[in-house]
Design a protein that fits this description.
Blueprint lengths: L8 H7 L5 E4 L3 E12 L5 H12 L21 E13 L3 E4 L7 E3 L20 E3 L2 E4 L5 E3 L14 E4 L10 E4 L8 E3 L25 H4 L2 E4 L7 E8 L7 H4 L4 H10 L11 H5 L10 H7 L6 H21 L2 H12 L3 H20 L3 E2 L13 H10 L2 E20 L11 E2 L10 E17 L1 H10 L12 H12 L14 H25 L6 E6 L4 E6 L9 H8 L1 H9 L9 H5 L24 H4 L1 E3 L4 E3 L8
Parallel strand pairs: 3-17
Antiparallel strand pairs: 1-2, 2-3, 4-5, 4-6, 7-8, 7-12, 9-10, 10-11, 13-15, 14-15, 15-16, 15-17, 17-19, 18-19, 20-21
Helix pairs in contact: 5-9, 5-10, 11-16, 14-16
Length: 633
């Protein structure tokens, strides 16, 4: 009977994915072979695939098989699975005698049944242990480390592994224990990857075979080393699928979402219907009872009634035309000065900004009366938030986040230096490619920066933002930030060639991290219980509880209602690090002041710096900055 152990869904999504090795309870090394899960048809797979496409686009298409540019055209090839059970197999089936004098290595990779004895069959004193070393390659291949052929006796059956008392694999040696070979030794050589290395006259699909022998070589690693497996995970706000089906059928729904964000239209997104937009306008259906009462006044002649009906019909036609999707999109383009192609690309991020406020039952700090009893010290909290340059601070009690893992890499994480692999097709679901998901129904704090103050901050630091040529200057100033991050790789360190993008993203990212750290302290939570969700194009971020059970439930609601002013002041005063002046002189960012765990930060703790908030030197820009929280602003 197989052994079992219990792990949470979040742990599965990060640490127990197909093809990954792990230490099973009892010291047995295993490899995940399959995740069995419940199909989730209630989640918005369209939005999820758009997010995956955005993140995977860093790899050239030939380096991400199964994740093409037009991923939405292949949506039927994917399935969303919520993990329920994980199947694992013994791996590697290579055993090593722990008697250093012997050190024999036995390879049972091609056998189904393993020997029953736990002691070495040669020395009869040493205990057989699984060899903890494996071979990996950038293409995603994983192999066991098997003993090579002895160059003298031409057999692997007498090979022993001698670590020579070292932990460095480069110091290890293969030693042949055959008496005829007289202890012949050889260095550990991983060999060429058998998955992607092909003879020069063989055509490899997608032209991704290594270009030289060195690139074809595998690496030897301890199986639990980080380089052996990098799961590719994304998070996004779950956008209700069914209630917005008609909205997503609009060809330019991204522009409509942006128009809603900028206040160009106040029409609820659920009201948009593509079929109705294409029908001929029926003005008589839009007459209200008040309109009919005014028309049927006894003091009017028949000629006057006819004239008023025609005028009212024309008015209603104009109103309906103005509220048609095409007209709204055109108003957006005119008022912002930003082309339609941009709004199509950023529609999802803007939609994620407005949906919590439309469906999440928000409590808005700046719309509460200063004397409200809903939160303690409301007036102090409002004044503090405004002095910090915040334009919005809302509590959202319904913030449904999806964590989705869609693939993995080995040896590298840098795009095009490795292959981004999807998970193996699901046999139980018609060979579809699985995306493993978990939905967390959380409360969240949604925070936005004041765009006017951000502009002033950039100018005080010597930058002159180029505004889009829109007809509405105020909306165009906000649309500037949408264009600012176009084609900017936010998961890489931003350098001096994108100074304004580095400034704005660094500001938003650092403030988000400090908010998470200080919120965890006040709530009495571990920082890994809270996560950030950045929406840089709208100068917005959210912090939310990423656990569904325990003390995290309602923690941010309690923070908003009872300790909001204290929390904001703690963030504003978090200018020091225990490692100053060393930290301040280097990056103004380290594990003690700004860093978060990988489960809380999806941007790998890059582009952070207390200098963005409190002033100081930024090494990437080679510039001494005025901080965003400087009182002079």
């Amino acid at each position: 009977m197989g052994r079992k152990m219990n792990r949470g869904k979040q742990q599965v999504l990060f640490n127990y994915l197909p093809g990954r090795t792990f230490d099973f309870e009892g010291g047995v090394i295993s490899r995940v072979s399959q995740i069995r899960g419940l199909q989730r048809n209630d989640l918005n797979i369209r939005m999820l695939l758009i997010k995956i496409q955005e993140e995977a686009r860093g790899w050239d298409e030939q380096f991400r098989p199964g994740l093409p540019d037009r991923i939405l055209d292949d949506a039927s090839k994917f399935i969303l699975l919520e993990p329920k059970n994980v199947d694992a197999e013994l791996f590697p089936k290579v055993f090593w005698c722990d008697n250093r004098i012997c050190g024999r290595v036995f390879d049972y990779s091609n056998r189904d049944n393993l020997p029953q004895q736990a002691t070495c069959s040669v020395c009869r004193t040493g205990k057989l242990l699984q060899l903890r070393f494996v071979k990996i390659h950038q293409c995603g291949a994983l192999e066991s480390l098997s003993p090579p052929l002895c160059q003298q006796c031409r057999s692997p059956n007498h090979m022993a592994l001698d670590t020579r008392g070292s932990e460095r694999i480069s110091n290890f040696r293969w030693v042949c224990r055959n008496s005829q070979c007289n202890g012949r030794k050889a260095s550990l050589y991983p060999g060429l990857c058998r998955v992607c290395h092909q003879p020069s006259n063989t055509q490899q699909p997608n032209n991704t075979q290594p270009t030289n022998r060195r690139e074809s070589e595998m690496s030897i690693e301890v199986h639990r080393a980080g380089r052996t497996y990098y799961g590719q995970t994304t998070t996004l706000l779950n956008i209700p699928r069914r209630q917005l089906d008609a909205f997503f059928n609009l060809p330019d729904w991204g522009a409509i979402a942006a128009a809603k964000f900028f206040g160009i239209t106040n029409r609820p997104l659920e009201d948009f219907n593509l079929s109705a937009a294409n029908q001929q306008i029926n003005p008589s259906a839009s007459y209200s009872d008040a309109d009919l009462d005014a028309l049927m006044s006894p003091n009017k002649s028949p000629e006057q009634i006819v004239a008023e009906i025609q005028a009212l019909r024309q008015q209603r036609q104009q109103e309906q035309q103005q509220h048609a999707p095409d007209a709204i999109a055109q108003q957006l383009i005119t008022q912002t000065g930003v082309p339609l192609t941009t709004w199509r690309q950023v529609g999802q991020e803007i939609l994620e900004t407005i949906m919590p406020l439309e469906n999440g039952r928000p409590k808005k700090l700046f719309e509460l009366p200063p004397t409200t009893q809903e939160i303690q010290n409301a007036q102090v909290a409002q004044q503090t938030a405004q002095s910090m340059g915040l334009a919005q601070l809302d509590l959202v009690t319904d913030f449904p986040m999806i964590v989705a893992t869609y693939g993995y890499t080995r040896a590298e994480t840098t795009p095009n230096q490795c292959r981004l692999n999807p998970f193996p097709p699901e046999r139980d679901h018609g060979g579809k490619l699985p995306i493993y998901v978990d939905k967390v129904q959380a409360d969240a704090l949604l925070i936005s920066l004041n765009p006017d103050r951000v502009h002033s901050w950039l100018q005080r630091n010597g930058y002159q933002p180029t505004m889009p040529n829109g007809s509405d200057p105020n909306i165009a100033r906000r649309a500037y930030f949408v264009q600012l991050f176009e084609d900017v790789p936010l998961r890489e360190t931003l350098q001096g060639d994108s100074p304004e993008a580095r400034m704005v993203f660094g500001l938003l990212h650092t403030l988000s991290h400090l908010c998470v750290r200080q919120a965890a302290l006040l709530c009495g939570l571990d920082r890994t219980s809270l996560s950030e969700y950045l929406l840089p194009r709208t100068l917005t971020f959210a912090i939310y509880c990423n656990h569904r059970f325990g003390a995290t439930i309602g923690a941010l609601t309690a923070l908003f209602e009872q300790s909001l002013a204290e929390w904001l002041n703690a963030v504003r005063n978090a200018r020091r690090c225990v490692y100053d002046p060393v930290c301040r002189e280097r990056e103004s960012s380290c594990h003690a002041c700004t860093h978060l765990a990988e489960t809380s930060c999806r941007f790998f703790n890059l582009n952070l710096g207390r200098s963005f908030l409190f002033g100081g030197q930024d090494r990437s820009l080679d510039k001494n900055l005025i901080g965003y929280l400087d009182p002079s602003l």
